[in-house]
Each structure stands twice: as structure tokens, then as C-alpha cells.
Amino acid sequence: MSDKFDAGMQVRRRVLGDAHVDRAEAAKTPFDEPFQTLITEGAWGTVWASDGITPRERSMITLALLAATGNFEEIAMHIRATARTGASKTDVLEAFQHVAIYAGVPRANHALKIAKATYAEMEETQE
């Protein structure tokens, strides 16, 4: 594999956790392997590996973009990642408030609903 892949896998594991990445890797098939490589090299090995902004800021931007574009399926995963990136609940709320103003209240409202449920699950597993 490439250096970008190796760097991407390290960042991906640091942000999402080994258990998540192990599950994703186990589910990979020959059909989607090229796509998974693209994501690992591009998203994780280039964008998330950049030191231009902090992981906390990157989490906030990612969550806002996911909500603003209506890509709700990955919000829970990125909420769970905030435990590793340092983005607080207040940070996430601030990001979704921006979404409400600039992309629409319904999208921000739905993202908040997912975030609340995910935070509740996270707190439940800590007990």
C-alpha cells in the first residue's frame, strides 16, 4: 500500500477507534476495496492527516458538512469520534447552529436528534 494509505489508516484508527476500523475492514469485499482505499488515502491520509487545523476543528467542520448536505448516516460515527478528537458537546451544538442558519433548521434539527441519541448511547456504555 501507499504512504497515504498507511497514514490514513493510522489517522482513521486514532479518530474512529480500532474496533470501528476492524469492523469496516472485515466487511470489505473485492467489490468495494478500491473505494475503501480511496477513502483511506483521500479522506484519512490527506484531509484528516493534515496538520492545517486541529482534529477538534476538523470534527466540527465534518459534522456541520454532513448535516448541511443531509448525509445523516455518518453523523453518529463522527459524534462518537469526538471522544477522540476533543470536540465537546458545546462545539457540536455550535456547529449545528451554524447549519441551522446557513443550510436550514430541519437539517440541523435532525443532526441534533442523532447527536443526542449517540451521546446517550456513549454515556450508557461508560456506566
TrEMBL record:
Signal peptide: none annotated. The keyword Lyase applies. PANTHER family: 4-CARBOXYMUCONOLACTONE DECARBOXYLASE FAMILY PROTEIN, CARBOXYMUCONOLACTONE DECARBOXYLASE-LIKE DOMAIN-CONTAINING PROTEIN. GO terms for molecular function: 4-carboxymuconolactone decarboxylase activity; peroxiredoxin activity. The gene is pcaC. It comes from the Bacteria. This is 4-carboxymuconolactone decarboxylase. Residues 35-117 form the Carboxymuconolactone decarboxylase-like domain. It comes from Thalassobius vesicularis. Keywords: Lyase. InterPro entries: 4CMD/NDH-1_regulator, AhpD-like, CMD-like, Decarb_PcaC. Its EC number is 4.1.1.44.
